Inverse folding.
């Protein structure tokens, strides 16, 4: 009886968003008389940082401080339509919609500023700190707040913009089934090292090393946060989470977190992550998005690591101790493979 | 049903309320006095989202009868900050990106506070042990562990 170390690798290509019905998202941006901007979305932020990243995209496009932008999400009754937060589409699809809306709003803002400064709008620029000035003459400037007030109370303009991002629907070739489901792909590679106990069938994570290519990381700390946490969703899927086996039927399955297992703080291991940035041509500021890809390569890498450790090919998830033990027994004992 | 009168200190303030017999402390806090910071996760003591301090000791409020709190001092996340000033643990959680969806965060913060109150400079293993009753789905725990270590006295942690 022994513990065996094994190492496994997995690489993935991950499509950003999908193409059912074109996968659209909309955004609306408008200024308040205070010169602050509101972004209205129906998209959901469930902790992944959608509000932060769309706020950054809006502020950057408008040329105003990020503090001056408020993102209002998650009311599909009053917000513009969004397909939803899934398929790693948030940053890319919603980000593009916000960018388009912010561009339109910026156009009106510059027109309103031009009227106040009595210059041509094409000669104006933003300083990113809440002011609009004549190019090459920074002293001839007006604050976005003054512009917003003038637009609202004097010029009768709404500083606002509409945005939608729609991928052209990809036709399916009836002969081959071929289609193009996504416009850009993210990529990842992950190496997992595990320790398998051939007496109990338990699999412990020893370390992970990974590289993720996800377009431009618009908010590097949020990207890192998703990658660190998402990897453990992958481990959880690979090794822990199951409504089975509970006998004699599923009504005896887990009902709460005491029975439905997930990794705890004592189960984690070191994870070194390299983020590679290859901006996507059609991404907002080149972004694709980490999303689901955080978890995806972990599962095959862990299964491969278990094979490397004890020589059993696990093809059903999660890889519970019971399944590992049965497989080891079926092949007549652990057969550690060559370490590479 | 007969109501039971109950008095306890809630984040340094005396509160009095009536509760139904058999009601747990989590319900008394959330529905009785409107402190929504302790979260209902599993209701079975399996996730730690409802963690509060009773007389300085970490307890699962979903497994504590409200009547057991009578005359005791209850601390929840709602009382962690000092006026407008965040607690060092809250600041560290923010700076270390130790929250995503945030549902486990109140319980994690109270478990971490219980640890730092009795052990101001814990080792990494002691931090892991201290939050081992708390489940987090999003972060993979690493940023939480790092945040607690960063908040520990002087920000220096022993290996």
């Amino acid at each position: 009886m022994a513990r065996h170390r094994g190492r496994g690798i997995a690489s993935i290509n991950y499509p950003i968003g999908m193409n059912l019905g074109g996968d659209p998202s909309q955004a609306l941006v408008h200024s308040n008389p205070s010169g602050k901007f509101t972004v209205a979305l129906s998209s959901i932020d469930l902790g992944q940082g959608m509000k932060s990243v769309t706020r950054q995209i809006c502020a950057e496009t408008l040329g105003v401080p990020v503090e001056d932008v408020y993102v209002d999400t998650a009311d599909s009754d009053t917000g513009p339509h969004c397909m939803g937060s899934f398929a790693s589409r948030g940053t890319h699809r919603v980000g593009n919609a916000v960018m388009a809306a912010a561009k339109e709003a910026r156009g009106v803002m510059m027109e309103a500023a031009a009227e106040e400064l009595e210059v041509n709008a094409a000669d104006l620029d933003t300083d990113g700190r809440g002011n609009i000035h004549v190019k090459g003459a920074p002293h001839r400037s007006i604050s976005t707040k003054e512009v917003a007030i003038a637009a609202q109370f004097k010029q009768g303009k709404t500083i606002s913009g509409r945005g939608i991002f729609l991928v052209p629907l990809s036709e399916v070739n009836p002969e081959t089934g071929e289609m193009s489901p996504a416009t850009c792909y993210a990529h990842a590679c992950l190496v997992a090292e595990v320790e398998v106990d051939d007496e109990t069938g338990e699999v412990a994570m020893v370390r992970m090393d990974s590289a993720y290519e996800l377009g431009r990381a618009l908010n590097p700390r949020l990207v890192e946060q998703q990658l660190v946490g998402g990897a453990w969703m992958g481990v959880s899927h690979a090794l822990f989470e199951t409504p089975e086996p509970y006998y004699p039927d599923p009504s005896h399955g887990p009902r709460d977190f005491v029975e439905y297992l997930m990794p705890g703080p004592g189960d984690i291991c070191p994870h070194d992550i390299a983020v590679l940035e290859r901006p996507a041509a059609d991404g907002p500021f080149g972004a694709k998005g980490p999303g689901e890809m955080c978890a995806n390569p972990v599962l095959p890498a862990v299964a491969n690591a278990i094979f490397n450790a004890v020589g059993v090919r696990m093809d059903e998830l999660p890889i519970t101790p019971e399944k590992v033990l049965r497989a080891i027994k079926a092949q007549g004992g652990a057969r550690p493979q060559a370490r590479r | 049903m007969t109501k039971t009168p109950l008095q306890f200190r809630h984040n340094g303030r005396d509160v009095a309320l009536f509760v139904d017999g058999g009601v747990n402390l989590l319900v008394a806090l959330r529905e009785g006095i409107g402190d929504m910071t302790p979260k209902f996760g599993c209701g079975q003591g399996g996730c730690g989202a409802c963690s509060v301090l009773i007389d300085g000791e970490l307890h699962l409020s979903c497994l504590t009868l409200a009547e057991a709190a009578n005359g005791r001092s209850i601390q929840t996340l709602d009382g962690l900050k000092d006026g407008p000033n965040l607690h060092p643990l809250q600041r560290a959680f923010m700076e270390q990106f130790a929250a995503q969806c945030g549902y486990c965060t109140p319980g994690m913060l109270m478990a971490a506070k219980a640890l730092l109150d009795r052990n101001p400079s814990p080792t990494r293993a002691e931090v892991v042990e201290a939050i081992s009753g708390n489940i987090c789905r999003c972060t993979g725990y690493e940023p939480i562990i790092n945040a607690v270590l960063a908040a520990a006295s002087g920000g220096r942690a022993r290996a």
Notes: The first strand of chain B starts at residue 3 and ends at 10.
